[in-house]
Amino acid sequence: MEYMKVPESRYEEVIEYLREAFPDEPLNVAIGLCQKGVPCELLESQDLQTLRDGLSVMVIDKATGEIAGVALNGISRKGDVETAMEAMKDIDSIEYHHIFELLFGLNKKADLFNKYKVDKIFELRILSVDGKYRGRGIAKELFQRSEIVAEESGFKLIKVDATSFFTQKIAESVGLKTEAEINYKEFEDNEGKRIYYKVKSPHDYYKLMVKELGNKK
Ligand code: ACO
């Protein structure tokens, strides 16, 4: 296996890889925003923007040249969540609203920029390992390598919106702590509706997790 920063020449390949590999993320399975193998413009345009931050990590199976997994890492700046919530008003997709209102809502409430006195945060936005390579520690390795990228790039805080129990296990094992969480089955929207009750166990919580970094550079 060969780990590397995602070069610009491979952005499209990563998007195509995620189109196949990421739709089984537990919140997406329950809500149904993206379907396996089908272009998913709303998410893919965000992923491309994240890739352009130049902080993402990929792993290639050297034997086949295939992408085995990726960690899409981006920069979050003060005010980004509020801007994204405003922009969401022009998006019709109910599925998009259901997923991103959950994530943006908790991030807004957590207010990490004020709490940790930072003006930018390293966000591990998408963690994905191809089905046939799972269960071998690849996601954990991608996570650890992302943390190194964050430290080398001078970030003081790494954050992950861990929608999957497996990501939460990895994040905990490398020292992230839970800043805020939502129980999928218990959460009710403003009208008292339970939107996330279909998310399957063991993925019982969405956890916003963080770690302060040593700042070696
Ligand atoms: N059943 C039980 N435990 C599992 C499973 C499973 N199917 N998959 C992973 N785990 C556990 C492992 O045992 C390990 O825990 P341990 O260290 O205590 O043994 C931990 O989760 C991590 O295992 P890895 O082998 O490093 O994870 P893997 O390479 O299999 O990738 C991932 C995990 C990325 C979640 C993969 O299953 C995947 O791509 N899923 C679909 C997309 C997704 O859900 N991504 C995460 C959403 S959150 C986000 O993107 C920020």
Largest sheet strand order: 1-2-3-4-5-7-6
Can you count the beta strands? 7
End-to-end distance: 28 Å
Supply the CATH architecture: 3-Layer(aba) Sandwich
The biggest beta sheet, please?
A: 7 strands, mixed
- Could you give me the name of the CATH homologous superfamily? Gcn5-related N-acetyltransferase (GNAT)
CATH topology: Aminopeptidase
Strand content: 15-25%
Q: Work out the oligomeric state of the chains in this entry.
A: single chain
- Report the helical percentage: 25-40%
The rough form would be described as globular
**How many individual domains?**
1
Write a structural description.
There is one protein chain. The protein contains 8 helices and 7 strands; from the N terminus they run βαααββαααβαβαββ. It has 217 residues and is of the alpha+beta class. It has one domain: Gcn5-related N-acetyltransferase (GNAT) (Aminopeptidase), CATH 3.40.630. Strands 1-2-3-4-5-7-6 form a 7-stranded mixed β-sheet, with helices on both faces. A hairpin with a 6-residue loop joins strand 2 and strand 3. The two termini are 28 Å apart. The site of acetyl coenzyme *A has 26 residues, from strand 4, helix 7, strand 5 and helix 8. Acetyl coenzyme *A (ACO) binds next to strand 4, helix 7, strand 5 and helix 8.
